[in-house]
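User: Show me an example of a complex going from sequences to structure tokens.

Assistant: Sure. Here are the input components:
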Amino acid sequence: NAGVTQTPKFQVLKTGQSMTLQCAQDMNHEYMSWYRQDPGMGLRLIHYSVGAGITDQGEVPNGYNVSRSTTEDFPLRLLSAAPSQTSVYFCASSSINRDRGRYEQYFGPGTRLTVT
Amino acid sequence: EDQVTQSPEALRLQEGESSSLNCSYTVSGLRGLFWYRQDPGKGPEFLFTLYSAGEEKEKERLKATLTKKESFLHITAPKPEDSATYLCAVQGISGNTPLVFGKGTRLSVIA
């Protein structure tokens, strides 16, 4: 049981390039989400998904796309990288308890992205 | 709008010196309050979920408590390995509402 995995660990992009950050979980969790973490800003939600085929925007969705074709995978696409997207990106997953909402959300190890 | 404020921003303790971290929140109906630990260069690690006022949970030297407006993370006789950033998050009443995180408290425990 690997939990939540993310690739790559580090990435450097030039302005205007596109790329996909990969996220996978093996816990059969319905709920998955992407956050970015910047100094002094805390964790900010980019996009989330409550199940395969369903995605929604978070607090800072501009410049990012997501899709959820399977329960296990939730890739994050940067369409045209900008220096403002330099950050550490975390993927998270959790099961959904219908009575209590989400609980025990687990995070991946993160991808450190630099855009020059 | 759901909000979470953590204090202090940073805390420096001597080994064995107990203290508490605070998480104040405003939320339109609380479904859950979450505590995480984050070490430098790593993802947040889940610690506790609290669901209702008066609830308490413990894990080793950590104890989390919850009132209607705030949560405390009590650290008893901390050790240097407890040094980390501690994050608090809340989830509002709507079933799929995303977690809202505070900015964290950076704890340093000095031997």
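The lines above are the inputs; the final block is the predicted structure for all two components together. Chain B touches chain A at residues 31-32, 34, 36, 41-46, 49, 51, 87, 89, 91, 95-99, 101-104 (CB under 8 Å).
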